[in-house]
Amino acid sequence: MGSIRLLLGAVIAVLALVSFHVGGANGFSIGSICNPLLSATGPWISGHATFYDDHGRGGACGYGRLGSELFGGRYAAGSPRVYLGGMACGMCLEVKCVGVPACKPATVRVTVTDLCPDRPPNTQWCGGGKLHLDMATAAFPVIANPRAGHVPIQFRSVPCAPYKMLKLHLRGNMFGWLEVTALGIPGSGKVLKMEVAGSDGSWVVMKRAFGAAWAVAGRPMRSPISVRIAIFGKLCKLVAKNCISGQNFNGVDLSCAYSVGY
Predict the structure, then answer these.
(1) Which of 45, 48, 63, 193 gets the most CB atoms within 10 Å of its CB?
(2) Does the predicted TM-score (pTM) go above 0.85?
(3) pLDDT 10s digits, 185-206
């Protein structure tokens, strides 16, 4: 009976893996277990789109200048139902216009970097639980004539670019407060959990401060400090070993190599 249960469990696991569509860049893999899971392409979801310019501010996710450098003019602000309190920050979406003469026969990929708040003048589009993307002024014209102002769309989650380095924006110091915003997350682009460890090797769980920023307070840490990011439950974690050094990190931007842990 035990062997039958084990066999059944193995069959279910295999079916779960093959049910994902393997995408991403050719030859890109961040781990034999993680890669098929993280390369899943989601179903098309119906919504609407408008456009705006964040003027390089990086949006409510807190990406700032690094976001402008990494994502260029391919970003979008999500309505609260899309943004999900910051959980969608960094998520990569493929968008297409549907059903109106203004549509163009093309799709565009954008990264969620901002919130389209449920307040004037955005209430009409981003309020009331609507699924809405306020796209960058450079991204919207790829799928539709800007003169339309707003168009119905379909969008879906797609694998992000095969970033080989993590980009980190830091605030704080080693004496009891550290805030980390991470960009260039492979796979879905989302950060599900973040931890840091000082030179003693003890991992400390951070809390989401806002958007894509995670913070820990009240515990001094000796550098070098390592960062561990969960990107698919407990299975897939990116580990940037000894990435942060020094005593004062306020305003520091880093590029860190990473390995894959489970």
Answers:
(1) 63
(2) no
(3) 888 888 999 999 998 889 999 9
